[in-house]
Write a structure and sequence with these properties.
By secondary structure, the chain is of the alpha/beta class. It folds into two domains: 283 residues, no CATH class; 153 residues, 3-Layer(aba) Sandwich (Rossmann fold), CATH 3.40.50.10140. Helices cover 45% and strands 11% of the residues. Helix 6 packs parallel to helix 13 and helix 9 packs parallel to helix 11.
Length: 450
Amino acid sequence: MGFKPGENTRDRISQLQEVSFVKDQFIEDVFNTDYVLVIGNEVIMDKAVEPTGDVNRYILRAINASLRKEYKDFNELAADAASGVDPVRNLLNSEEDFSFDLRDMAPELRSLLETRLFPIVLTTTVDGYLETLMRSVWGDRLRVVNIDDKKAMDAWRNALLTYRGDARYQEPTLFYLFGKAEKNEARKYVRTDDDAIQIIEKWILMPKDDPIVSLVRNRKLLALGCKYDDWYFRFFWYTLRREISQFEGGQVAFMLDRNDRSDENLDRFLNRVRIFRHPDARAFMSEITELLSSQDLSLRRLVVSNRNKGGVFLSYCSKDFPIAAQLFFQLRRKGYNVWFDNRSMHGGDDYDREIERAILSSEVVLTVLTPHVAADLSAGETDHYYNKEWKIARQLGSARIIPLAVNGYDFRKAYHTGIYEEMMGTLSGVNLMGKEGFPHLLEELDHVLR
């Protein structure tokens, strides 16, 4: 029986929210690269730029201003557009009239992606804002795939097929689930319900063992900002996932409207299949960014409870805490004893002595080298605490030192061949970027430890 007119649904909805957010499990899953991020149009814009935060509303407002119209949505716009004219595509591809400025984007979303912990992003948007943001984070490494671009889809499938065993696909990738409004007018993107049906047909026709389908089915999803009346929900929960039981444990944040019947139905459905929901996607983004990047107390406890002396010692710049944490959990999953710490975790006069003991008991010291480290070396700054750990490791001489290049650090540059090698000597390093990086590291560790 449906709710009676005027009946307050607030209490009923709140009663359905029984699935809790398990911080420790979420942290470990993220750092173990178990999550794929899914982003809807509702969380793209800074609300100071677009009050609703919805990039589609922002684009529509720009079109209405240009055409002096009052279209309510893309459906209405498409129905009224002159033959052969595509206002959305024309606007988004006009550099004179429209630019994708990072300053216009939601700061919560920017901060989350800048952690670099979510390199694989699926989006239901059709514009270039998210792509611009991801390029600012990943540069030329970013792979962009449009579902209506057969060449790009086939290239991605081939890339996914090359990852086997210990090499898990984690290359920076942005996938336009419903197409992108590109200059190429032959490519379709979703403006109307009819467009959505045609795109969804592409997914329905994909076999279950398609590498792209398998990628999504075999990871957890962190969905941000997609509402029930978006085709996204019907597509993901009923078309792509197919076996809903496999989706248990995923995290979802959406803009819950307490007076919207469809949102209430979505809340009931997600609760029934035991999926955590958060009513405010922007607040949720801020919470998990803080959780993953600022050494939250629960993360400290999780690290300390899992670390062990002996085996592997991780030395890293404090700015690279998320990268080091990810490496820590991935190595722990493979069964290695890993010592992972940070000066801010444990104060006191014995910290230096504790670090020295940990390095002395380790057989391998991994120096995590990133653009932050490169910048320090280039500036001649060698008085950071991680530099002290390097010196201790070299002076003790009891452990094999392996330099690890991450996110663009280049062993061939002067900052490495000069200052680093002056401090540490000429060492054989491992480049963690690409499909051979992590397996190569495991081979090196096995050679030393086993």
